[in-house]
Design a protein that fits this description.
The protein is of the alpha/beta class. The protein is 41% helix and 12% strand. Strands 1-2-3-7-6 form a five-stranded parallel sheet, sandwiched between helices. Strands 4-5 form a two-stranded antiparallel ribbon. Residues 16-267 form the Transketolase N-terminal domain.
Length: 276
């Protein structure tokens, strides 16, 4: 990666953030907070890391992405639109009657969504299944799974961590959006996860700690995960809930609340560097 490419990814990140704000505003519902904190991870993954074909979403050799925290689908929809899966204009149909862009992603309505999600705690198990199938079939594809930190309070995630390590699924890459907040507030006050990276290590995962808002750092983390053999990898990325919008950052109340028109104008100004 050269710096010009990284700068282009940063521009796409701004557009994806703006898309998230606009689409949740148009829907008058949705989850902007945890979508905004995952932008760099998704843009780096879809634009530079995953082997996929937006024009052929069912290509058998594609890498697979699984959104375990299904409520954060606005960031995935926006990234998919910006990489050519469907027109950007369709984003404004989020949660509308008859839309392909459901409030939680549906593989039955939108090509490119591998598995419907929304029930928290299940995504890593599904990613393991696809990764194990790739191993058995001798296929080269990898499985990526984005999880929320609050979601890690769900027991099935820990069972999936054991499974991936047991089968040495080095074609699995977990991504944890470690923004420290969930719908009920501070993660550590609701159900503490610290020391999170050490817990993953104790389950025999290769752990990569990264700044989730540094595109170059995320590209390096994905590359390290790909080069790691004999065990699964997880990127524990430190992030800010509501990143890029001044009044949303580190505020749990924006977990599932869209902007009104006035707030959206301020949010877009913040995202494009024109805020007060």
């Amino acid at each position: 990666m050269n710096m010009e490419s990284v700068e282009r990814l940063k521009e796409i990140c701004c557009d994806v953030r703006a898309d998230i704000v606009r689409m949740t505003n148009a829907a008058a519902s949705g989850h902007p907070g945890g979508s905004l904190s995952s932008v760099e991870a998704m843009v780096a993954l879809y634009c530079n890391v995953m082997n996929h074909r937006p024009s052929d979403p069912s290509w058998s050799e594609r890498d697979r992405f699984f959104l375990s925290k299904g409520h954060s689908c606005p960031v995935v929809y926006a990234t998919m639109a910006r990489t050519g899966y469907f027109p950007v204009e369709e984003l404004l149909t989020l949660r509308k009657l008859g839309t392909r862009l459901q409030g939680h992603p549906s593989c039955k309505t939108l090509p490119g969504i591998e598995v419907s999600s929304g029930s928290l705690g299940q995504g890593l198990s599904v990613a393991n299944g696809f990764a194990l199938a790739a191993k058995i079939d001798g296929k080269p594809y990898r499985a990526y799974c984005l999880m929320g930190d609050g979601e890690l309070q769900e027991g099935q995630i820990w069972e999936a961590m054991m499974t991936a390590a047991h089968y040495k699924l080095d074609n699995v890459c977990g991504i944890v959006d470690y923004n420290g907040l969930q719908i009920d507030g501070d993660i550590e006050k609701v159900m503490g996860l610290a020391p999170l990276a050490d817990k993953w290590r104790s389950f025999n995962w290769h752990v990569i700690e990264a700044d989730g808002h540094d595109v170059a750092a995320m590209l390096a983390a994905y590359d390290e995960a790909r080069r790691t053999k004999g065990k699964p990898s997880v990127i524990v990325m430190k992030t800010v809930k509501g990143k890029g919008v001044s009044f949303m950052e580190n505020v749990a109340g924006w977990h599932g609340k869209p902007c009104n028109q006035e707030e959206m104008a301020q949010a877009l100004a913040d995202i494009y560097g024109k805020g007060n």
